[in-house]
Amino acid sequence: MNTFLLPNKGEYPAYYSTYMDLVPETPFCELVESQIEDLKSLFASKPENWSDHPYQSGKWSPKEVLGHVIDTERIMTFRALCFARGEKSALPGFDQDPYVLNARFGSVQSDLLIKDFEAQRKALMTLIQTLREDVLDFKGEANGNTITPRALFWIIPGHFIHHLNILKERY
Are 52 and 161 within 8 A, CB to CB? Predict the structure, then answer.
C-alpha cells in the first residue's frame, strides 16, 4: 500500500480547509475504520426514533445527515477515481439539498444507512489500496476547482468529523 500522506494546502480549494483542519494525523485506513465505529456508537447511544428528528425546523434529521455523508463520500470517491485514472474532463458540482430531498432518507431504516456507510467505507479503503502512489497527485477539475485524488480522499474523513460533531452537539 502507498504511504498516503495528507495533501498540501494547494491540492484543494480553500473552502475544504473546514474539513481538512479537523483531520488528525492518523493513518488514513485507521481513521476511516475508527469512524465506522464512532458512527455506530453514536447511533446506538441514542433513544429509539432519535434519528428521525431534526434539532430544529428546516434542518436535516440525523438519518438525513448520514445519508448526505454517504452521498458526499460516493461523489468524492468517484471524482478521485476519475482523476487517478487520468480523466481530463471537468466534473460537475452537486447541490446537496436536492440529493437529500430526493433520497428520502427519512423512510430508510437507520440500521440500513449504517450498513451502507460501512460498505462505502470498505470500498473506499480497498480502492485506495489498489492505487499507485503517483496517481494520488494527479490533478483534475471538479465544480470549477482543481483538486487531487489525495485531497478528495482526505476530505472524506474531515467531512465526516464535521457532521459527527454537529450530530453530537446539536441533536
Answer: no
The domains located in the chain, with CATH, are 9-170 (1.20.120.450)
List per-residue pLDDT tens for the chain, 171 residues long: 456 899 999 999 999 999 999 999 999 999 999 999 999 999 999 998 999 999 999 999 999 999 999 999 999 999 999 999 999 999 999 999 999 999 999 999 999 999 999 999 999 999 999 999 999 999 999 999 999 999 999 999 999 999 999 999 999
118: left (phi over 0), alpha (psi -120 to 50) or beta: alpha
Q: Are 51 and 63 in contact (CB under 8 A)?
A: yes
What number of CA atoms fall less than 13 Å from residue 105's CA on the CB side?
28
The stretches of the chain forming alpha helices (DSSP H) are 17-20, 28-45, 62-84, 96-103, 110-130, 149-170
